[in-house]
């Protein structure tokens, strides 16, 4: 099974990249699969309501796609989706590992060649790459530090801790991908030149860009978690640079100093090859 894993920090545009890839005819995106169990649980016990699916269904249980995936996991593992722990990063036996079971079911139900997981966490990426039945292609998503940090602050508050986390997460990703072919996508490039950026991700996978990827909001979506963008009906792109007017010069300077390593080491948007493993992503049948 072929998996495209989007790695990065929160508030870096992973949902947007996820949806654009999902609009490709050979790719299905499932959003942040790490949060699948949470999305299947009752959201409001008093009203017995669930988180709705991005396809429009009232919940993942009422979504035709996720219902079919659930039936498939029951057939192959004897377990429902809600009983498969996507947080488990220990089991490496693909026949028993919850993540492998779910990816296999998604592949069989969708009939697509590639599955996108936009869970972002470096630890999860490392685990998935160790599962022998998964062929994982990482995409390192990077947003300008001041833009990412300002977006997080707007929602969660704080300041210094977000600088530290930005540097920590990207260092973990860089270290994990040192000998692994992968793509780098900068959020700003994705918004300002989406076609060229998507081509840079698709080419190493042996895929061609499709114009419908620019109309990503019109595609059928079954994303787990992510931001509200997965529910919008317009594919208009606007570069969020509110940080320019809202950070003080001192704050901007603090972020520049705190993220200097990431800014110096992060490559430009494009394909990163490593001599140790060759210059192309291995292609295997599902």
Keywords:
disordered C terminus, 286 residues, 6-stranded mixed sheet, single chain, two-stranded antiparallel sheet, alpha/beta, 13% strand
Quick summary:
This protein has 286 residues and is α/β, with parallel strands linked by helices. It is 40% helix and 13% strand. The C terminus is likely disordered.
Describe this structure in words.
By secondary structure, the protein is of the alpha/beta class. The protein has a domain at 2-143 and 183-236. The chain is built from twelve helices and eight strands. The protein starts with a strand and ends in a 14-residue tail after the last strand.
Distance between the termini: 5 Å
Strand order of the largest sheet: 2-5-1-6-7-8
Based on CA atoms alone, the radius of gyration comes out at: 19 Å
Question: Which class best fits the helix and strand makeup?
Answer: alpha/beta
Got a strand count?
A: 8
The residue fraction in helices comes out at 25-40%
Chain-averaged pLDDT? 92
For the biggest sheet, the summary is:
6 strands, mixed
User: What is the H/E string?
Assistant: EHEHEEHHEHEHHEHHHHHE
Beta-strand content estimate: 5-15%
What is the tally of helical segments?
12
User: Which outline best applies?
Assistant: globular
- Which runs of at least 5 residues are low in confidence (pLDDT < 50)? 276-286
């Amino acid at each position: 099974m072929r998996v495209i894993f989007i790695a990065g920090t929160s508030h870096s545009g992973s949902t947007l990249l996820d949806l654009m890839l999902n609009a490709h005819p050979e790719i299905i995106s499932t959003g942040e699969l790490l949060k699948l169990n949470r999305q299947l649980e009752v959201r409001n016990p008093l009203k017995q309501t669930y988180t709705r699916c991005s396809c429009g269904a009232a919940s993942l249980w009422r979504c035709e796609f996720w219902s079919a995936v659930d039936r498939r996991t029951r057939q192959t593992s004897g377990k429902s989706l809600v009983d498969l722990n996507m947080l488990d990063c220990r089991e490496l036996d693909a026949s028993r590992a919850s993540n492998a079971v779910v990816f296999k079911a998604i592949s069989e139900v969708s009939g697509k060649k590639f599955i996108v997981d936009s869970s972002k966490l470096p630890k999860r990426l490392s685990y998935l790459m160790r599962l022998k039945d998964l062929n994982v292609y990482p995409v390192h998503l990077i947003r300008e530090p001041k833009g990412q940090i300002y977006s997080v602050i707007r929602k969660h508050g704080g300041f210094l801790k977000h600088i530290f986390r930005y540097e920590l997460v990207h260092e973990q990703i860089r270290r994990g991908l040192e000998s692994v072919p992968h793509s780098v996508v900068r959020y700003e490039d994705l918004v300002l030149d989406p076609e060229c950026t998507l081509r840079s991700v698709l080419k190493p996978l042996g895929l061609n860009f499709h114009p419908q990827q620019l109309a990503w909001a019109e595609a059928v979506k079954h994303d787990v978690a992510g931001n509200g963008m997965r529910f919008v009906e317009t594919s208009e792109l606007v570069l969020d640079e509110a940080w320019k007017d809202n950070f003080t010069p001192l704050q901007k300077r603090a972020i520049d100093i705190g993220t200097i390593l990431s800014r110096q080491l992060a490559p430009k948007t494009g394909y990163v090859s490593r001599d140790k493993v060759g210059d192309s992503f291995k292609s295997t049948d599902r």
